[in-house]
Amino acid sequence: MDISLSPAAGSGRRAARNAQAARLPSLTGMRFIAALAVFLSHLTLENLFADDGVQKSMTAMFIQGGFTGVGFFFVLSGFVLAWSAREKDTARTFWRRRFFKIYPNHVVTFVAAALLLGFVANETFDIGTAALNLSLLQAWAPVNGGFNIVSWSLSCEVLFYLSFPLLFRYIRRIRPDRLWFWVGVVVALILLVPLAATSLPNEPYLWYAETSVPRFWFVYAFAPVRLLDFVFGILLARVVQEGRRLPLGFGWAAALSLVAYATAPLFPMTYKLTAVTVVPLGLLIAAGAVADRDGKRTFLAGRRMVWLGEVSFAFYMVHWLVLTFGVRWIGDEWGTPAALGVTALLFGVTLVLSWLLYAGVERPVMRRFSTRRRPRFVVYRQDPASAKTAAPAPTVRMEDHG
Question: Which helix (H) or strand (E) holds 397?
Fold first, then answer.
């Protein structure tokens, strides 16, 4: 299946030119900000601060970061995949790249979680939960994800990747002057999701989510619902590629995202999970891509931020294990200065482990297996001295190096 951005596919020469005009370093830097937001959100659940007032302030400040960070990743995923779609790519080669991008990290952290749960937490190994987690099917039902909890988002990403070749085939056929209309349609559907969730049972109650398990799962974790965020990102990529005007520049989009983040807790849970922040985040991603495309430097495009963005997936995959078992070993309810020190320690350990996972697993696996190596032709020259006596032999041999 062709998933290219070639002119013949209907995106126009401008789209193909824009798609290759920038490497989007600002969006790479944004990835770490989103991963850090998720880290701080989960940190608040560990009750590091003995002072109730400080603990409540930390929770009020950062708890929204988990919901916002994941929503950002889903929109960004659609945007980046559409932006970087390769000419004459096929569904099979695309799926191969995405498999080797996410699954090795998932397997490593799954094994680490299983060992920690078994030998440190002394929990019983549940084969059914393990199978759901390892196969990345846990987001399809409101069940206990178990093991490395955060891998539920990869379960959604699997659906995104499987759907992308077909989705992109049709989205790239949309006329440029109709793109904003379809963006509006997808946003309207996202805003209707919390309303649809009210038809689900209001029990059992999920205390930390202020809503029921079925409603929380449907709005936040159900893969087909979160596919809307992904499609939103694809459409925004096409908006930028086609040179359509954005309503906000990078600075204003960042300000709007901060306002949405700050005000989201004022809304009912099913709305603040994604509906309140999805549009500002999408505009921020699109504006960042425009800035990169046009050669405008942002602080997110610096070398350090780009490096942090490159390890952000590994950071996301290891952070929950570090927080959960780190606090188990170190303890909770510390005085404020000590709690800040413990926070810095946990962050540092997470960053080091994420670099090791990125450098030791993610990057080498992608380099070796993400694309199939083509056979290489090797030419052997015959020794002139033996040419007169040796039997004729082929001068070219094909060696399979893949």
Answer: strand 396-399
In this model, does residue 395 exceed pLDDT 60? Answer: no
The Cα–Cα gap between 221 and 150 comes to 11
Tell me if residue 112 falls in helix, strand or coil: helix
Q: In a 3-state reduction of DSSP, which class is residue 212?
A: strand
Buried b (16+ CB within 10 A) or exposed e, 383-392: eeeeeeeeee
Closest by Cα among 114, 124, 153 to 136: 153
What residues does each domain of the chain span?
7-376
Are the C-beta atoms of residues 169 and 1 closer than 8 Å to each other? Answer: yes
* CB of 224 closer than 8 Å to CB of 159: yes
Q: Are the beta carbons of 243 and 18 closer than 8 angstroms?
A: yes
Provide the sign of the torsion angle of the four alpha carbons 191, 211, 121, 338, taken in this order.
positive
Contact 283, 232 (CB under 8 A): no
Q: Where are the alpha helices (DSSP H) in 84-178?
A: 91-119, 127-134, 152-171
Q: Who wins on pLDDT, 207 or 27? A: 27
User: Over the stretch 245-286, which tens digit does the pLDDT of each residue have?
Assistant: 999 999 999 999 999 999 999 999 999 999 999 999 999 999
Quick one: pLDDT at residue 20?
44
The answer to whether the CB of 400 falls within 8 A of the CB of 372 is: no
Neighbouring residues of 341: CB distance < 8 A, sequence distance ≥ 6? none
Which two tokens mark 234? 């694809």
To the nearest whole number, what is the mean pLDDT of the chain?
88
Most confident range, picked from 238-252, 365-379, 387-401 = 238-252
What is the C-alpha to C-alpha distance for residues 129 and 145, in angstroms, rounded to an integer?
A: 7
Q: What is the pLDDT of residues 310-353, one digit of tens each?
A: 999 999 999 999 999 999 999 999 999 999 999 999 999 999 99
Average pLDDT (9-31) is 65
Higher pLDDT, 122 or 93: 93
Cα–Cα distance for residue pair 348/350, rounded to 1 Å: 5
**Cis peptide preceding 7, ω within 30 of 0:** no
Comparing CA positions, the residue from 365, 360, 280, 294 lying closest to residue 30 is: 280
Q: Which residues contact 157 (CB under 8 A, 6 or more apart)?
A: 74, 77, 98, 102
